[in-house]
């Protein structure tokens, strides 16, 4: 075909112009009845995605006191309404039915998980951290003052927000740990 006339025959262009006889083939009564989850929200709160240091803006939609949807905030100068796959799935942080809400513990060589009281679990962790620090503390190494422990290390995950990672870094440093890394930074 001469010039750019072949261009107008592309199927996608014909569909967009409404010239394709199949334009309603993908429609159904169910499709037409669907409504956005955001349409019936009682309120909308602006927030920031908790996953990494980028700080993408989010709109959190709430219905009946529960999060009903989370979407990118188009007014955010950082992300302009876009979210990565983790940010898009952040609603699951609070609504997923498989989300653990109790402390579970499996004893050494055990095969079953058991529920623990939060206070008992915190005491157990504190005791183990302090014992490990005491048992592995190095005041000096090769004649130099190092004041460190190699028995404690920290690895933060992508579900931790910047503030949580900051506090974890401060805690590990105060304990003398020098092996501190964070997946969200990578």
Automatic annotation (TrEMBL):
Pfam family, one: Molybdop_Fe4S4
Gene3D superfamilies, A to Z: 3.40.50.740, ADC-like domains
Domain 4Fe-4S Mo/W bis-MGD-type: 42-98
GO BP terms, alphabetized: anaerobic respiration
Region of interest (Disordered), residue spans: 19-39
Cofactor(s) needed by this chain: [4Fe-4S] cluster
Entry GO CC: cell envelope
GO MF entry, a single one: electron transfer activity
Top-level EC class: oxidoreductase
Transmembrane domains' residue ranges: none
Record key words, sorted: 4Fe-4S, Iron, Iron-sulfur, Metal-binding, Oxidoreductase
Domain of life: Bacteria
Entry-linked InterPro entries: Mopterin_OxRdtase_4Fe-4S_dom
Main location: other
Record-listed E.C. numbers: 1.17.1.9
Cellular localization per UniProt: Cell envelope
PANTHER family from the UniProt entry: FORMATE DEHYDROGENASE-O MAJOR SUBUNIT, TUNGSTEN-CONTAINING FORMYLMETHANOFURAN DEHYDROGENASE 2 SUBUNIT B
Family: Belongs to the prokaryotic molybdopterin-containing oxidoreductase family.
The protein's name in its UniProt record: Formate dehydrogenase major subunit
Native species: Nonomuraea dietziae
């Amino acid at each position: 075909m001469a010039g750019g006339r072949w261009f107008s025959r592309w199927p996608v262009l014909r569909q967009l112009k409404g010239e394709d006889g199949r334009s309603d083939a993908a429609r159904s009564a169910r499709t037409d009845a669907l409504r956005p989850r955001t349409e019936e929200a009682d309120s909308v709160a602006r927030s920031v995605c908790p996953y990494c240091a980028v700080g993408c803006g989010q709109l959190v939609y709430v219905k009946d006191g529960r999060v009903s949807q989370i979407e990118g905030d188009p007014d955010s100068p950082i992300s302009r309404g876009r979210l990565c796959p983790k940010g898009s799935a952040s609603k699951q942080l609070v609504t997923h039915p498989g989300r653990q809400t109790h402390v579970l513990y499996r004893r050494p060589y055990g095969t079953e998980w058991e529920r623990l009281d939060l206070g008992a679990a915190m005491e157990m962790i504190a005791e183990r951290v302090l014992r490990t620090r005491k048992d592995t503390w190095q005041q000096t190494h090769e004649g130099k003052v190092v004041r460190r422990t190699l028995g404690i290390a920290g690895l933060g995950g992508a579900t931790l927000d910047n503030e949580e990672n900051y506090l974890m870094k401060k805690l590990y440093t105060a304990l003398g740990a020098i092996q501190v890394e964070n997946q969200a930074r990578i």
